[in-house]
Amino acid sequence: MRVTRTIRVNCLADTPDRLPAVLREAQRTARPIFIESIPWLVYELPPPAFDRRRGASLVFESEDVMRRIRQYPPNWRQLSDEDLFALSWGS
Fold first, then answer.
1. What is the pLDDT of residues 68-78, one digit of tens each?
2. 79 and 73 Cβ atoms separated by less than 8 Å
3. 32: left (phi over 0), alpha (psi -120 to 50) or beta
4. What is the dihedral of CA 50, 58, 8, 54, to 10 degrees?
């Protein structure tokens, strides 16, 4: 006998009331930056429990793009918008 499971995955584009509390809090405390007139939110996201690397991520989120980096300076909030955004490209 074959058992099939259906798992519902909530994506970031889902309604705000369905976002996990950790993500909502991270976005609430995000640093807004504007690059070429495009608004971005930059926020630190703690590692999920199942992540074997156990490191926080710095997330760069715009309306169309999301980037995540794992290595970033502890003073990322003090960087200029341009220097902070350069981190999202791995520079």
1. 999 999 999 99
2. yes
3. beta
4. 0
For residue 11, CA distances in Å to 17, 20, 64, 79 come to 12, 10, 14, 29
Mind spelling out the 3-state secondary structure of the chain? Answer: CCCCCCCCCCCCCCCHHHCCHHHHHHHHCCEEEEECCEEEEEEEECCCCCCCCCCCEEEEECCCCEEEECCCCCCHHHCCHHHHHHHCCCC
35-45 residue pLDDT tens: 999 999 999 98
**Residue burial 15-33, b: 16+ Cβ < 10 Å; e: rest:** eeeebeeebeebbeebeeb
Domain positions in the chain: 18-87
